Amino acid sequence: MVSEFPGDTAAARGTGAADAVTHGSHADPAGAAAAGRASAPGGQDGLRAAKAALRRKITAARARLGDAERAEAGHRLRDAVLTLPEAQMAGTAAAYYSVGTEPDTRGLVYALWKRGTYVLLPLLLPGGDLDWASYEGPDSLVPGPRGLLQPAEPPRGVAGVASADLVVVPALAADRRGVRLGRGGGSYDRALARVGGPVPTIALLYDGELLDEVPSGPLDLPVRMIAQPREGITRLP
Fold this sequence. Notes:
The chain is of the alpha/beta class. The chain is 30% helix and 19% strand.
């Protein structure tokens, strides 16, 4: 991701045993959703605990994926997004450069750029907010904070994302309201707050990570579409 910074480091290290979300077998996404519904009691503490538990489950499931599975997922997601009419018409797209066990977005970013879309990628700021700069091919990226690759081009400011006609964001899970679960830093909720209502926003997931419900609060902003490798695009209300 530029992945939801500064992130929930405990969740990122999690190797939980029984996982409600798995890839390939899709074991029990309903169990993970139930964890989300349990977040209401206890107020903010309960919400934080429910989010952290779901992050651990999904992070552990993602860690078990092999390189070939991640690569295939990235190819399928790339193709699904590229065939969207909204992507084909987008003059400017805001995306992200995947890291770790995230679904691979490098092929998607490159393909958008090669067909003439102006692509913006995030620059992580010290407070966790996101600036934006243009992607000019793989050789235009330089090492950034937390092991990220980010554009070497001049930053366009945190409001740069507002110029995008399509916004692609990372997520660990999402639900059928469009509410997404990030890593806990709130970076992308701040970015989504700057995006106009009609602009298509899409979160990239592995299969099995679209749940009935994820724990959410008033600052968790929804996306309008979900992409999964085998399920393709899901448009949300």
